[in-house]
Amino acid sequence: MNKSTVLVIDDEPQIRKLLEISLESNDYQVQQAETGKQGLLMAANHPPELILLDLGLPDISGHELLKTLRQWYNKSIIILSVQNTENDIVTALDNGATDYLSKPFRTAELLARIRAAMRRNQLSDNNASIQTIDDLEIDLTARTLKKGGVIIKLTSTEYSLMALFFKHEGSVLTHQFILKEIWGVGYQAETQYLRVFVGTLRKKIEDKPNQPQHIITESGVGYRFQ
């Protein structure tokens, strides 16, 4: 069985070593780059299944490298950075990051985020019309959502929101990204509008809407579907 390749772009040798040990012990193949230019070259020559990217690189801004990669690289990019302000996180996600973890991070959490990102890659590659997460099943052809085998009645907007969540399972989606994708550019400031729809969806799909297990709030940033 071929191992999935993860490219680590980080200028800290200790972090690269930690990631190499953790990833290889979980059956990933690891490539390493200590500068942005080196990472860009490696990604172009041997595209990995996933990239772990530090924003504080010595030669070019991690944000600029992210935007450059997103011109052609369509698989998952997870940010690992000490830059953890709300603006840093939102900017990275809006520039195409799949996920964002602040340093220092917990290895177990990082591995869980990587597994979710890899699942997303696989779903994208397979372009499956029926996707399942726990007890939820969405049929992208029939435009239906089931919970425990029972069809849940959704409005057209609610269905579109669920389809977007399934498509980006495991990733943090900013309020602005969701609003633009579902309602259009003119609605990107209507975060309260989005909260109402998320609240309604939670009542329909969560066992305990006040303690959601699927649609998770990322404070000040957006939502993660898991």
Short description:
The protein is α/β, with parallel strands linked by helices and 226 residues long. The chain has eight helices and twelve strands. It folds into two domains: 4-123, Response regulator (Rossmann fold, 3-Layer(aba) Sandwich), CATH 3.40.50.2300; 128-225, Winged helix-like DNA-binding domain superfamily/Winged helix DNA-binding domain (Arc Repressor Mutant, subunit A, Orthogonal Bundle).
Give your account of this protein's structure.
This protein is of the alpha/beta class and 226 residues long. The protein has two domains: 4-123, Rossmann fold (3-Layer(aba) Sandwich), CATH 3.40.50; 128-225, Arc Repressor Mutant, subunit A. The chain is built from eight helices and twelve strands. A five-stranded parallel beta sheet has the order 2-1-3-4-5, with helices on both faces. A four-stranded antiparallel beta sheet has the order 6-7-8-9, covered by helices on one side.
Name some characteristics of this structure.
226 residues; Rossmann fold; five-stranded parallel β-sheet; four-stranded antiparallel β-sheet; globular
